[in-house]
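Structure in, sequence out. Go:
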């Protein structure tokens, strides 16, 4: 814990997102293996996915679960999203994830 506030002020954050079975786990594992990157490991969350380690934005389950969320327009989070607004959600997300950075 205690990593996120210092890190996001000094380094860019990369969000890896995509449909299940699209290679996101492989990419995240490769990035997380770098000594220059922090990632989630051994969190007890499915695939150590950040969506399961926070309560700021809805998870895929709210939109029907694996794969189904992709066809629900309400699941898309863009610059036009208002609840929660992406810039307003950044700090609460980092705070929720703080205990899980490795």
């Amino acid at each position: 814990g205690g990593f996120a506030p210092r890190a996001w002020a000094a380094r860019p954050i990369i969000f890896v997102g995509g449909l299940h079975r699209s290679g996101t786990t492989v990419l995240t594992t490769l990035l997380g293996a770098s000594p220059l990157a922090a990632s989630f490991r051994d969190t007890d969350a499915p695939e150590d996915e950040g969506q399961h380690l926070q309560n700021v934005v809805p998870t895929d389950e709210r939109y029907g679960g694996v794969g189904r969320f992709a066809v629900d327009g309400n699941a898309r989070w863009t610059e036009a999203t208002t609840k929660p607004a992406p810039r307003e959600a950044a700090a609460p997300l980092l705070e929720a994830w703080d205990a899980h950075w490795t």
